[in-house]
Q: What sequence folds into this?
């Protein structure tokens, strides 16, 4: 989905995404409040948690660009 959105909207290429594997890097998840994955945070704010859709992931990109 993210690749698809980046192809449609080249400005989303500016958004840096860090993928954290909670079982491999549990120390990086400290301080994040979530129950379901994937969960997307922008500047510490939870934007999306759980089942992603194209529209919801696009909202994450839009929030990140603001």
A:
């Amino acid at each position: 989905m993210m690749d698809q959105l980046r192809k449609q909207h080249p400005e989303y290429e500016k958004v840096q995404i860090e993928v954290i594997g909670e079982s491999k890097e549990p120390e990086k998840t400290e301080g994040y409040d979530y129950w379901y994955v994937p969960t997307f945070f922008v500047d510490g704010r939870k934007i999306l948690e759980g089942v992603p859709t194209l529209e919801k992931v696009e909202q994450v990109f839009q929030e990140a660009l603001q």
Remarks:
- The longest strand covers residues 45-49.
- The mean pLDDT is 96.
- Residues 43 and 64 are 8 Å apart (CA to CA).
